[in-house]
Amino acid sequence: MLAGKIYMHSLRQVLGNIGPALRISLVPTALQYGLMFAISRTSLPDPPALETAMRSGHPPLLPLAAITLVSIFCGTWIAVAWHRFVLLGEQPKGWVPTLMGERMLTYFGRSLLIVMAPIAVELALVVPLFLVSGAVGLVARPLAALVMTVGLFAFIGVLATVLFRLSTILPAAALGADSRLRAAWGATRGQNGTLLGLAALYVLSVLALTVPQAFFAEIGLLIFAVAWQVAAGWAAAMLLLSIFTTLYGHFVQNRALV
Fold first, then answer.
1. Per-residue model confidence (pLDDT) at position 202
2. Which pTM value belongs to this model?
3. What is the separation of C-alpha 75 from the centre of its chain, rounded to a whole number of angstroms?
4. Could you give the angle at the alpha carbon of 94 between the alpha carbons of 90 and 99, nearest 5°?
5. How far apart are CA 28 and CA 241, in angstroms?
6. CA-atom Rg of the chain in angstroms
7. Which segments in the chain show pLDDT lower than 50?
8. Distance between CA 95 and CA 117 in Å, rounded?
9. How far is CA 87 from CA 25, 165, 172, 206, 257, in A?
10. With 0-12 CB in 10 A as exposed, 13-18 as middle and 19+ as buried, what is 142?
11. pLDDT confidence of residue 153
12. Where does residue 177 fall: left (phi above 0), alpha (psi -120 to 50 degrees), or beta otherwise?
């Protein structure tokens, strides 16, 4: 099963390079969480007041925008360095990965293109799904609920497949190679089933990573729950970046899976 091979290759990519992975990601991750904490403590209200503001339609836009920008900057910093390490062999120098402004800006731009893909998918699938479900509901409400449930699962599957098919533009942007959407779509032609299976494996991995966090929170060990959340978030992000890297290496550069 090709999906399983890609998943295991990506997993070994992280586990076999823990040292470089930490040198690439530790400082940006610490900076991200440090700045997010500082912004939250100085510019955001306490959680109940924040929830009330969000519900009333008056969220604190500037602090939330600052947190978002910090996350994007640090995430892009890590992503570009990781793709270049795996695909070009660029070893991290010390504990601060090189800031490649042009490559990071291009990477961010290509990420926006991928984020826009769900909008087209939603218009193409979700709107007809609601129309069909509503029409069926006029005849049998239980059947309408079944149609909606099956349709939403199908929508999520199609969305995940589309995102994975387009994901090769991200490593390409990090390398300064051809990062057009058409090139990415063509490189993964005929791999819809593989990418759907790969997306399912990744989602199952993320769900498995959340179990210890829920356990720690349930028994009141909140410090351990927060620590696990940070570690699990790092692991999930690095695995996803490695999947993108593997897809680019295999389908675009014709590299073998080992």
1. 92
2. 0.85
3. 10
4. 60
5. 15
6. 20
7. 138
8. 35
9. 17, 19, 10, 25, 13
10. exposed
11. 63
12. beta
